Every structure is written in C-alpha cells, then in structure tokens.
Amino acid sequence: MAESDNGWKFAQCFGDKGEVEDITEADIISTVEFDHTGDYLATGDKGGRVVLFERNDGKKGCEYKFYTEFQSHEPEFDYLKSLEIEEKINKIKWCKRQNAAHFLLSTNDKTIKLWKVFEKSLKVVAENNLNDGARPQNGRIQQLKLPKLTHHDTIIAAVPRKVYANAHAYHINSISINSDGETYISADDLRINLWNLNISDQSFNIVDIKPVNMEELTEVITAAEFHPIHCNLFMYSSSKGTIKLSDMRAAALCDQHAKLFEEQEDPANKSFFSEIISSISDVKFSKDGKYILSRDYLTLKIWDITMENKPLKTINIHDHLRNKLCDLYENDCIFDKFECTFSGDGQNVLTGSYNNYFHIYDREGLTDIALQADKSAFKAKRVGSAKNKMLSRGKSNSKKEEINVDAIDFNKKILHASWHPNENSIAVAATNNLFIFTCV
Amino acid sequence: MSLRKELFKGKGGLGGGVENSGDNSLHQTASVQEYEVLEEIDEEKNNLESLPTFFIKPRRKKDYSPVSWETCFDICRDIKIPDSEDVFKAYEILGTSENCPIFVFHHGAAYSGLSFALACSYIKQLMNGGCTMFAYDCRGHGYTKTSDDSNLSLDILSQDLVNVLKAAYGDNVITSRDIFLIGHSIGGCVVADAASKGLIPSMTCLAVLDVVEGSALEAISGMLGFLRTRPTEFKSIENAIEWSVKSSTIRNVESSRITIPSVLKKEESIQTGAIKYVWRTDLAASRPYWEGWFLGLSEKFLSAKAAKFLILAGTDRLDKPLTIAQMQGKYQLLVLPDVGHMVQEDAPDRIANALVEFWKRNERLVLPVKKVTS
C-alpha cells in the first residue's frame, strides 16, 4: 500500500536517479509541459533535447512511457558579440492537435522552432527475385516476380517544420500560443513579438520596454501568456512585480496596458531585497480565463482578473527564507525562477521550492500539500515506510514547522512542473529526473 | 549573466561589482546570423521498444562517426616516386601563388597525414592562401604503399621526405621554394635528421612537436607494455574513434573522427565473413628502429640551419642539451597546457596560431638591392 497524502502519491520517475554530484549538466530538465489532452508529456533539457512521453492507456491509472526524443536545438555561437547561445530549451508549448501528427513549439534563448512529430511507416523492398544471392535454377520468365514494398517498421519521426530565428536580441523567456491556433507570442527580456505560425521570416513587435539609453534600464519582462479564451488579450509580468494585461485591438504597439495588476508594497516590509523578491518569475491564466496566478520569490498570488489593486489571495511558500535573503543573494538563488501552474479545473495551484519540495494549494490557500520529488518518494512507495516525507499543514494549525533552514539543499530546486489538463496528475522536474505524482 | 541579474548585481549591488565576463548584453544589437530554413530532415530514430516504464536513462549520444579528409584538405593525391614502386598518399591545401612557401608536415608513428587535418584548416584561414600545405602518409602508414613497408629506419624516412617533395613539386622544390618543416613525434626526428643532413637546402624554418631525445629514449622501455594495452582490433571505425577519445589518446573528438579511419585497415575473416578493423601499422614490429629514431635528436635539431621551434605538451621535460640551448636562445620553445601527446590534434587552433606566428616572424627577408653607383 503506497504512502499517500490527501490522495497524492508517487507514480513514476524517469531519469538517472544518481546523486546530484554526478549529474551531466546536459540532462538537467529545463521545461515540462503536458499537451491539451494530457496523453502526451514533453520535457526539454539543457542539452537542447526534447523528450516526449505517451500515456500508457493499457494500464489502469496514471502511467507514461517513453515516446520519442529528438535534438531540438544545438549550441550556437554569435560571432558578432562573441557570445555562446545555449541550446537549453526554455519552453515547450503544444499546438492543439488537428490531425494524426503532433505539433509543438520549442525555444531556446534565441530561436523558436515548430516541430512536427509523427509516426512514419518504414517500408523495405521485399520479395526480391535474388533474395539470397543465388542464381535461379532456370531463369524462366514466369518465375520472376515484381519486388514489393512492404511495411517493415513504424518509427516516430520529428521534423522541424518552421524555424523562427533572428527576432530576439535578448533571451527568450516565454512563448504562448493563441486560442486562435494561428498566432503566438514570444517574449524576451525587453520585447514581445507576435508571430503567425505559418510565417517564419516575419514577426510583429507588440511590446517594447527597452529604454533609449540602456543605462536607464530598470525593469525586464519575465513571462508572458495569451488569454485562453480571448484571442486579443495577453499579459506579461515584470521584474518589478507588475502584471500588465494588454489588448491587441487597442493599438499596434501594446506598451500601454489595459489593466495593471500590482499590489502596493507595505512600507514596513521594505528592505534592500524587496525589489528583487517582488520580481514575478511566472504568470499563468486559469483555464476559464478569470483568474491569474503569479509567482514571486517567496509567494504565490491569485488574482481576479477584474480586480487590479490587490490579489485575492497571497500564499507564502517558504517564508522561512525571508531571513536568509542575504545568503541567497550571495549564492544567486534569489534569482531562481520558479514556475507556477493552475490545475485543469482551476481549483488548485502548484509551485516548487527547494530541497526538491513542491506545494499544492487549493485556490483559497487554505490547504497546503507539500510533496518531495526525491529518491525517498519511490523508496516509500515500495517499502511503505513509516518515514513520513509527506506533510500536511492546515492553515489554522499555526504550529511552527521545524524547518531547518541550514539543512536545505539549494541545489535541489523544483523550478518546472506541469499539471495534467483533465485529471489530478502532475509532472515535476527535479534536476535531471522527471517525477509523476497522481491523485487519481 | 541574465539581464535581470545584471540589473541588480551588475550595477553595484551589495558590493558585487560588475562581473566583466565579456558579456555585453546591456549593449546588444540584433545579431545578423544567417539561418536557412531546414528542408525535411529524415530522422531515422529507432523506437526504443518496451522500455521499463519505471526508470529510463535517456543517454546523450555522442557522435563518433568518421569524417572525410575533404572537410580540411583540398586535394588528396597519390605520389609515385620515379624509379621505384613506392606510392605515397598526400593531402594538400594549395596556396594562391606558384612559388609560395610550403609547410610540410610529417606525422608520428602509427598515425597518418590526416593527423594535421584540423591544424591545416586553421592555418589556411590564418595564412589566407599565402602558403601551400603538404601532409603525407609516411612509409608503412595510412594509405601509402611502398615496396618495403617494414623498413622504418630514420635514414630511409628522411630520404622518403626528400623524394616525396621532389616528386610532388618538381626537383627544384628543395632549392627554390621556402620550406617550413613540421614534424610530430617520430616525424620530428625525421625532419630534424633531414635538416641536419642538409637534404633540403631551402628550408627556412623547422618545428618539432612533442618529442625530446632524453625523455623519448627513457620511454622506450615502457612502450612495448603500452602497446600491449592498446586494443588490437575494433568492430567498427566508430568504436575505434570512441576508444581513442575515451582513452585520451586523442582528446579532441573532432580530430579523432578525421584521423582514426586512416590508421586502421579493414580485415575480413574468410571463414566467418566478420569484418574487423586493425591497426594499419604494426608498431611493435618497428622496435628495432626505435633507438635509431631518437639518438642524436637534440643535436640534430640544434645544428639545423634554420629558425627552430619546439612545441611540447605540458608534461614533457627538456633534456640537458635542449635546456642549455634554450637558455642560449638557440630555439623558440612553446609549452601547451592541457594537451596530450597528440598536440596538433588536441589543440589544432593553438598549434596553427603558433606555427603561423613563428613563420611570419622568421620569414625570409628580401631586402631591396641597393644600387651602388661607382
């Protein structure tokens, strides 16, 4: 009987479960994304590879198996600036399925690619006349037969269909496909571009926050997403803790926002690090488009799209780090970009933390399920050990958790995760391993 | 450094000054990189059947496939020595003018002319057609076929060097065209020997790569043992390339992919039809010649009438005559850190830079003739 907590239990782990010291950097997973059906799961890694998993329908319950992998991006060198362009996949987004083939967008810092993944039937020539190389006994014409092409094997092929290059001077942090299925936006630190999926040599710039004089730069764009229903609305978050909702119908250049979501900071809490930790690392719409989820360094905020001045709920993820900000600034962990995600039904939210912990909260922020994507997860499953790695804290129960801040491993962080669109299963990236947890 | 981090840390954050890693992201302009939209690429990927769903290790596949000489050299030809049965395989990059200087490369034992492939391609970029590059497979190596592949004595190898050059470029090449002789390991012994005997009068520069008489002679006893630890055969060329990289014989995988195919020969077993690849050159059989190669190397090198350059991998030590001569400034010494014995393969770019710089500094100076009025 597996250890479970609030119904959540470990389902699978993909990857090399070795110690963190031995990890090949290229295997570190940098993005995870379910497709719109939840039957396919994509991961991208630092080595520029994309690995796809397919739901194993034969088995009851949540189980995925390897589907295919391909090298999406290669490391490049920018000769003009003498800079290396990393092949790390920053984001993968699936297109809505229209036929038997899958289409997905994958991007590194500079180039976005549209990949087509499909099953290909390999045919070989069979029924040759001289199959075994021997000469026929008597070469009678009636005995000759036409060689046939027969199905030999089915492979899964991945082909780049479009390459959207040379449009971003800064590092791309997000891509988001529009609900119209035809266009998508790509956002880098200072600009957002609008593309048509079918046109790879042109794109429209719709947001540009680059100051004329770069010395005056104070803020960068950290994430962007299209509204799931209204194809003219999109939002982007900034390093100053603001979320701007823009309407593309209003003007060609959407620098003026339609709505600005910003919570006024409590002056009492102001510190040197205030600005850094207010930087939003990820922002998402709920599936119904009525709520916005944003993640900054220490908290998750759930916003009602109709209320700009304050969020509906602020959830503290790891408030115990508030006193350690100085050390986290020294080791750069304060700049870690944690992703956040809504559940398919919008009732829960998910985000990661350190020591391979990740948290699932309900939308009211009343319950907190903390799970750990670690070796212990699957040891517990098999042994059914009493070592209770899964904690459950009710908000009313304000008993202080004995979290030994000094024992936290800041190298083990859950930055990327994805929630199945139709059920309570999640895929979580823990450095070079992919964990699947499920509640079904 | 990400732009966001630079915002806080880059501009005088908490005492963290600007980290100048050469990252000019604050002053970026759109790059003008050319990128062609790829045509349909057929990726024949094998579908991994029935992997256990619990744990899968996605492995990074490193490319160990062989690469053709064409990626580095322009021409590959067979040079037949007149009045003999010997045919030497040579790889060339021709310079723009007919009489431009020739850089002649002699490889080391058990390797081939392709050992210098990457280095030559870098030199080509640096010299921009200003010189011809000529690398050949010496007797008993690579694709060269001679009447006596086993006679690897130093005298024969030096004579081969002269014969090949004359057959390739005409008899007057050794007197009329400026020549820069570069030899790696045993090749260094050969070029030093040819130089000291004055076999190539028009030689102006001499470079020896990673061989020192004292250390080489001391290493002879360990050589046979080392040869026994090498695999004698490989299932495929890819395996051989993979072995050479993993055993750090050639640390640069790009170079190994070009070189290794030429040092192997295919053998087919008649009974089973199985194909295997073995070393082209039987190094152990050349044992009788080993001392002959190295004895007197330092003296020959120092007595050559040319500008002299010695390049060593970090680990080698100079012997006494070379140390004294170094102090006397008789030759230029360059020590490359972080390379193995195959210096020109491990660090082709650094070698190319060093050789071109040395050549430019020691080029024959043609002074304008001053007219003397009587």
TrEMBL record, chain A:
Keywords: Phosphoprotein, Repeat, WD repeat. Gene3D superfamilies: YVTN repeat-like/Quinoprotein amine dehydrogenase. This is Protein phosphatase PP2A regulatory subunit B. InterPro entries: PP2A_PR55, PP2A_PR55_CS, WD40/YVTN_repeat-like_dom_sf, WD40_repeat_dom_sf, WD40_rpt. One of its GO terms (cellular component) is protein phosphatase type 2A complex. The keyword Transmembrane does not apply. Belongs to the phosphatase 2A regulatory subunit B family.
TrEMBL record, chain B:
The active site is at residues 185, 210, 341. One of its GO terms (molecular function) is protein methylesterase activity. Keywords: Hydrolase, Serine esterase. It catalyses: [phosphatase 2A protein]-C-terminal L-leucine methyl ester + H2O = [phosphatase 2A protein]-C-terminal L-leucine + methanol + H(+). Its EC number is 3.1.1.-. It is an enzyme of class 3 (hydrolase). Residues 103-354 form the AB hydrolase-1 domain. Belongs to the AB hydrolase superfamily. Demethylates proteins that have been reversibly carboxymethylated. PANTHER family: PROTEIN PHOSPHATASE METHYLESTERASE 1 (PTHR14189:SF0), PROTEIN PHOSPHATASE METHYLESTERASE-1 RELATED (PTHR14189). This is Protein phosphatase methylesterase 1. It comes from Glomus cerebriforme.
